[in-house]
Amino acid sequence: MKRLSCFILAFLLLVSLAGCSRQQASETDKTLEDIAAAIQKDQQGLPDLMRLTPEDTYFTTWLCDYYLLQAEQVSDGIICYADGAEASEIAVLLLSDEKECKAAEEALNEYIQNRVHAFEGYAPYQAAMVKEGMVVRNGRYITLLICPEPKLAKEVFLHCFGKSAESSGKKTENETNIEENAAAALSQETEERAETDRMEDSYNAEAILAAFRSGDDSSLSEINRSILAAAKAVIAEEITDDMSDYEKELAIHDYITGWSRFDYGVFGRSSADGFTDGSDTPYGVLIDQSAMCHGYSSTFQLFMDILGIECITVFGIPGGNGVEHSWNMVKLDGAWYCVDCAWDDPIGGSPCHTYFNVTSEYLRRGSIHRWDEASVPEAVGTVYAYGND
Questions:
Q1: Residue 19 has what pLDDT?
Q2: Which of 15, 335, 353, 57 is nearest to 178 (CA)?
Q3: Tens digit of pLDDT for each residue in 262-312?
Q4: Is 315 helix (H, G, I), strand (E, B) or coil?
Q5: CA proximity to 230, closest of 294, 331, 306
Q6: Confidence at residue 114, expressed as pLDDT on a 0 to 100 scale
Q7: CB burial class (10 A; 0-12, 13-18, 19+) of residue 50?
Q8: What is the DSSP string of 29-96?
Q9: What end-to-end distance do the CA atoms of the chain give, in Å?
Q10: Nearest to 381 by CA among 324, 331, 311
Q11: Is the per-residue pLDDT at 214 higher than 90?
């Protein structure tokens, strides 16, 4: 949920680091603010960035918690960043000692990998930009470049020292550690996924369904009882007996995408960040109004089960970020259809029906929906595609 192939990323990082060993001027009369401003000036499509300097209390926190650097490693710096679903970030740091450069490069490269993990599957265009990000060093100066045109940014950075970005082709010692760093990032992702699985144990769909059918919720936990109460209220408000299964399905889809919002916590910069508790269950959608993909799919599944509409949840094959995306399939009049409520509630956009009752072939054309096709039926239905009613 929360994250393109680490080895592809490693290759891109190797390319970006290849010029670090060349001989060139290592000092400049420009301030760090001047360098950062020059880098941003010619970037097309760069959003307005917030900035942090050592005068800001949060600067040291950013260095330590996100970049995994020690405060004493950096004598000065400026960090310009976007927030939320925007990944753009430009940092220019002056290290205290050139001996710290290798460790700083490794830490910032790992940060780039983690940012790819955060965006992949939820904001593919931002994830692609992060994947092209690079770390460039000159003497004690080091810059992190996550921006629309990183190669141009690299040229501008090096031009501030009076040299162009021509590479000698000599590899840095850091390159030998790329695979180890990628493996460590994947290991961290696996641990985070395990924690997510433990959190999901608190949501019990079977218990909620049993309580709904019996009318007795006394055995439910507080969380499951609140989910059931919210689901009953939605059904009472949105569903009538004279509706067809398709009309009920559409009403639930529109309620979910209109009521909830995507949990921006999945874009957190450090392992301490992350989506809020319950946002991968119906609790996130129905109670907190904030969820990620599993929250959307599990909520849709719960409603379909309550309404007696045949439905399954599909867990996609994880990409390079180790994270599964999930969506649903419904069966109407004998034919299967695919539904992805999370992607119909787009980040920064209005709810839509782009992924409502579409075919499996339609999903294959995109960049995120990949699944074990032998384990689920093929969706070929078109009669109940949105707009045909």
A1: 40
A2: 15
A3: 876 666 665 445 556 788 899 999 999 989 889 999 999 999 999 999 999
A4: strand
A5: 306
A6: 84
A7: exposed
A8: SS-HHHHHHHHHHT-TTPPP-EEE-TTSHHHHHIIIIIS---GGGEEEEEEEE--TT---EEEEEEES
A9: 33
A10: 331
A11: yes
The structure tokens 């994830």 sit at 127
Closest CA to 243 of 354, 341, 389: 389
Tokens of 314: 């599909």
Cβ atoms 248, 300 nearer than 8 A: no
Tokens of 169: 């082709």
Which H or E run includes 103?
helix 101-119
How many C-beta neighbours within 10 Å does residue 377 have? 13
pLDDT at 83: 77
> Could you give phi then psi for residue 127, rounded to 5 degrees?
-60, -40
Residue 358 identity: V
User: Mapping DSSP to helix (H, G, I), strand (E, B) and coil, where does residue 329 land?
Assistant: strand
Specify whether the CB–CB gap between 120 and 114 falls below 8 A.
no
